[in-house]
UniProtKB/TrEMBL annotation:
Keyword NAD: no
Signal peptide from the UniProt entry: none
Compositionally biased intervals (Basic and acidic residues): 368-378, 397-412
PROSITE patterns per the UniProt record, alphabetical: TYR_RECOMBINASE (PS51898)
Keyword terms: DNA recombination
GO-annotated biological processes: DNA integration; DNA recombination
Protein name: 25390_t:CDS:1
Tyr recombinase domain boundaries: 133-347
Membrane-spanning ranges: none
Highest taxon of source: Eukaryota
InterPro entries per the UniProt record, alphabetical: DNA_brk_join_enz, Integrase-like_cat_sf, Integrase_catalytic, MAVS
Listed GO MF terms: DNA binding
């Protein structure tokens, strides 16, 4: 009897695999935009669903939707959101419309849609509409402030939880959603230190074109004589409930003083997605970091991490090996100089210009004062006459300037005449020489 366990997968199993390849965030984004699209269809009295229309009608109605949809407050969606909307509608049609093999992004299949949407985005940018603000990172000083603040006290359950979250944000360059999906098996304690394993990322789900090997991020050793990320993460892992059932890395902190005294710091219950997604901003606010007019979220930890890698001069290939970026463009998008860096750079230029200008002025004053004292000192009456003469000369010079000013077209025309005259003179001189000989 054969010991092989080959089997024939059912159609439902195959369909589940095909559906499961799409990231959860992508599915959530698509569902959100389809609901917005259906509401817009109802508002403009379109009775038939989009997927029931032919190709030409779909091209028209998608164009109308992108140009006419607004938020509940009547504001324009950001340009980035509208591009996401087109991608969501494209996925929706490919999933629900039988025989649909088109791509709404293809300007050859949908030239009118491409032209209209391209024009819309350019017009919005010209009018400064739909601006999207990228995630902001923290400065080095703010990071130090957080690590020394009592809110992140590793000797309390909640403080240790927040501190571990912060270490994984900064050293693990974690994306916002990666915290929500982080499993305890991904944080491994080794003799060399803590290792963070990323099996799947936003840009690498491990499919046919993906990487089948985990992204490994080894945390650095703790500074000698100081409790650092390794010892604090080990402490957090040691306080997890024995024989825990939850595989989530982030667990709810116990709030009972009696239980905490007995060493029960955490419950066998994962933190809610909502709590995890707001964790980074909540830490910043609790620690007194100014978040006003700044876009602070869990993704700020990733931006901060890459900014710090860039600022200390880490080679690009090493930085990308930590961040997981596949391209230089994606990596350097995070490593762009901040407004403060730009302001400092331009300040250096301004200081140089002002310093040179001031030096030149001082030098000119020195030259003027060093002139021989054999000039007669004019009276106040002479000064008045001199001022009148200077004014008359200034007016005369101004008239002379505008009288001799020519447009570029006139200059080119005059130059053409001059070249023509020069050529005629040269020809005449050549004929005279020929006659003499």
């Amino acid at each position: 009897m054969s010991k092989r366990s080959n089997y024939l997968p059912s159609n439902d199993q195959l369909a589940a695999l095909a559906k499961g390849r799409v990231p959860k965030n992508t599915i959530k984004n698509s569902e959100g935009w389809i609901n917005i699209m259906k509401q817009w269809w109802s508002d403009v009295n379109y009775n038939e669903p989009l997927e029931s229309q032919d190709k030409e009608t779909i091209e028209l109605q998608v164009s109308q939707f992108l140009c006419g949809v607004t938020t509940k407050q009547g504001q324009s969606y950001s340009r980035t959101s509208l591009k996401n909307a087109l991608s969501a509608i494209n996925r929706h049609l490919q999933n629900v419309k039988p025989g649909w093999r088109y791509n709404l992004h293809d300007k050859n299949d949908f030239p009118d849609l491409y032209a209209r949407f391209d024009g819309l985005l350019k017009d919005m940018k010209k009018k400064r509409l739909g601006e999207s603000k990228s995630t902001d990172g923290l400065t080095t000083e703010e990071i130090r402030h957080l690590l020394n603040y009592e809110i992140l006290d590793p000797n309390t359950p909640l403080g240790l939880l927040k501190r571990v979250f912060f270490w994984i944000s900064i050293l693990g360059a974690a994306r916002g959603g990666e915290h929500v999906n982080l499993h305890v098996s991904q944080v491994v304690d080794t003799s060399d230190g803590i290792i963070l394993k990323k099996a799947q990322q936003k840009n690498d789900q491990g499919g046919i074109e993906g990487n089948q090997v985990d992204l490994i991020i080894p945390f650095p050793s703790d500074p000698e004589g100081t409790a650092g990320p390794n010892s604090e993460i080990r402490k957090y892992l040691s306080f997890r409930p024995k024989n825990f059932k939850s595989s989530s890395f982030y667990l709810s902190a116990c709030r009972s003083p009696d239980a905490i005294v007995k060493g029960k710091w955490y419950l066998d219950k994962p933190l809610t997605d909502r709590t995890i997604r707001s964790m980074f901003k909540m830490i910043c606010i609790e620690c007194g970091i100014n978040v006003e007019s700044r876009n602070i979220s869990n993704h700020s930890g990733r931006r901060t991490s890459i900014m710090e890698l860039f600022s200390v001069g880490v080679p690009e290939n090493t930085g990308r090996a930590i961040s997981g970026h596949k391209s230089s463009g994606g990596y350097y998008a995070y490593a762009k100089p901040t407004d403060e860096h730009k302001r400092e750079a331009l300040g250096n230029v301004l200081n140089k210009l002002i310093t040179n200008t001031s030096s030149n002025g001082i030098m000119q004053d020195s030259i003027n004062h060093s002139e021989p004292d054999n000039h007669e000192i004019s009276s106040s009456e002479d000064d008045g006459n001199s001022s009148d003469m200077d004014l008359n000369n200034s007016v005369q010079n101004e008239h002379e300037f505008y009288g001799t000013f020519h447009t570029a077209k006139e200059v080119l025309k005059n130059n053409s005449h001059k070249r023509s005259s020069t050529t005629d003179e040269n020809k005449q001189m050549h004929r005279q020489k020929k006659n003499v000989t």
